[in-house]
């Protein structure tokens, strides 16, 4: 039988409709366990709270778990939300230089801005 270290990618990027800090549920439970053998990025739904420029905030929650929150313009046109998220994700993936990675979806809405990738 293979160990989890051999079958898990080095990086897991999870897209979720839940907030990491809301209630400890199945996503947090599973991803916390995966974080023992992989680096986990938990990509939350965007918040619309910036006036100048969209950005990502990244904060560590526990060993191996990083929460990524997209901050988008307060008055962004709903039709351009996915474009803004794609641009932020492009920059994020360049910055973290993931060489072995997988996407994990807890929301199908994320597919609209991630479908160009082949993790």
Summarize the model shown.
The protein is built from four helices and six strands; from the N terminus they run αβαββββαβα. With 119 residues, the chain is an alpha/beta fold.
List keywords for this structure.
single chain, 119 residues, alpha/beta, 6-stranded mixed β-sheet, 4 helices, 28% helix, globular
Describe this structure in words.
- The mean pLDDT is about 90.
- The chain has four helices and six strands, in the order H-E-H-E-E-E-E-H-E-H.
- The chain has one domain.
- It is globular and about 45 Å long.
- Strands 1, 2, 3, 4, 5 and 6 form a six-stranded mixed sheet that branches.
- The chain has about 120 residues and is α/β, with parallel strands linked by helices.
- A hairpin with a 2-residue loop joins strand 4 and strand 5.
Class based on secondary structure composition and strand pairing: alpha/beta
Overall pLDDT level = 91
Strand content: 25-35%
- Total count of domains: 1
Poorly predicted ranges = none
Count of extended strands: 6
How large is the radius of gyration? 14 Å
Helix content: 25-40%
The DSSP helix count reads 4
Largest sheet descriptor: 6 strands, mixed
State the separation between the terminal residues, measured CA to CA.
Answer: 25 Å
Tertiary shape: globular
**Order of secondary-structure elements:** HEHEEEEHEH
């Amino acid at each position: 039988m293979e160990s989890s270290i051999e079958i898990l990618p080095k990086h897991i990027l999870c897209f979720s409709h839940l907030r990491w800090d809301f209630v400890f549920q199945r996503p947090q439970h599973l991803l916390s366990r995966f974080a023992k053998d992989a680096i986990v990025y938990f990509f939350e739904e965007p918040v619309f709270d910036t006036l100048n420029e969209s950005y990502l905030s990244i904060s560590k929650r526990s060993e191996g778990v990083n929460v990524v929150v997209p901050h988008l313009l307060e008055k962004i046109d709903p039709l351009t939300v996915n474009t803004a998220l794609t641009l932020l994700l492009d920059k994020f993936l360049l910055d973290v230089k993931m060489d072995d990675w997988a996407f994990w979806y807890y929301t199908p809405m994320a597919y609209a801005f991630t479908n160009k990738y082949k993790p």
